[in-house]
Amino acid sequence: MSTSELIDLRSDTVTRPSEGMRRAMYEAEVGDDVFGDDPTVNRLQAVLADRLGYEAGLFMPSGTQSNLTALMTHCQRGDEYIVGQEAHTYRYEGGGAAVLGSIQPQPIENAADGSLPLAQIAAAIKPDDPHFPRTRLLALENTIGGKVVPLAYCAEATALAHARGLATHLDGARYFNAAVVLGGDERRAAAGFDSVSICLSKGLGAPVGSVLLGSRDFIERAKRPRKMLGGGMRQAGILAAAGLYALEHNVARLADDHANAQRLADGLRSIDALKVDGPYTNMLFVTVPADRVAALGTFLRERGILTLARSPTLRLVTHLDVDAAAIDRAIAAFRQFFSGRG
Ligand SMILES: *Cc1c(COP(=O)(O)O)cnc(C)c1O
Q: In whole angstroms, what is the distance from residue 153 CA to residue 156 CA?
């Protein structure tokens, strides 16, 4: 089956660079970015910083590296950061803050809307006493599990952190999904955060790349941990060109992914055997009877539909390589399976 016939709902990281994006990469002007000489990387960093209202940006190969670079710039050895149990930096990045940064995570249970209750943040901030690590940073994530964290909450949480002398970081891997839902004002969701990490390789459709944003001084200091973590790339403009193309062409269209997630959720809700949670921006969560998960995964795969079926709850993610017709095909395949004709 050719890749164009595949309906890959495992993640929004699976998109392939389009013709136009590949042309932009081919034509990119490049230099050695470790020397700060790559004009395309410099342009990407400046464009994104300006759009979100930051002084400077730093291009990196991955969101994991960008988040860890941010943590290691905000925190020193023996410091602590407050983070959600469900947060990517805490749960899905190999424990890098502790392993490589000697930064102790202080996890807090996420509320249903993705937020961290303010009283629990306040209670987790340690007094200045040699018994305790130094609490240095509050890290939030938006979107989280596809959910747009309420901006009024972000304003309160970041104000609390700043009042207690903590810095604030936002893991905005899917920042633009939130921005589109919030009516397209791209600065609003970043308000109150000293740094933000943005992924270009998720819904924006670039093959590689993340950008860390912050003050000029913060970004200058971030260059050392980035280098230490192996993120000093050379003629990286080839990759940055894809990011610039994505920012120009693939932001507003995220609304299509959200509409397709809604279409998929509506279709799957009509199947009695399924319990559908969502959609939240471009994601939904579908719980399948436990004894049918494996068979469903195989049935769908045979029809060119890929899902991540590690547990009875599937996470389905829409993106720019899945259109409404593909969503309808996916719904039909689910229906066929559960009608017993599969
Ligand atoms: C994907 C993701 C990251 C990490 O990005 P990679 O480029 O895969 O390392 C960080 N945070 C969140 C919320 C993500 O979804």
A: 5
For the stretch 14-27, pLDDT in tens is 999 999 999 999 99
Q: How confident is the model at residue 294 (pLDDT cuts 50, 70, 90)?
A: very high
CA distance 12 to 275: 22
Q: Are strands 210-214 and 56-60 parallel, antiparallel or unpaired?
A: antiparallel
| CA atoms of 67 and 72, how far apart (whole Å) | 9
CB within 8 Å of 165: residues ≥ 6 apart: none
CB of residue 149 inside a 6 A radius of ligand 1: no
pTM tops 0.85: yes
Query: Residue 198: CB within 6 Å of ligand 1?
Result: no
What does the chain come to in residues? 342
CB 96 within 8 A of CB 69: no
pLDDT tens-digit map of 173-208: 999 999 999 987 999 999 999 999 999 999 999 999
Whether 141 lines ligand 1, by a CB cut-off of 6 Å, is yes
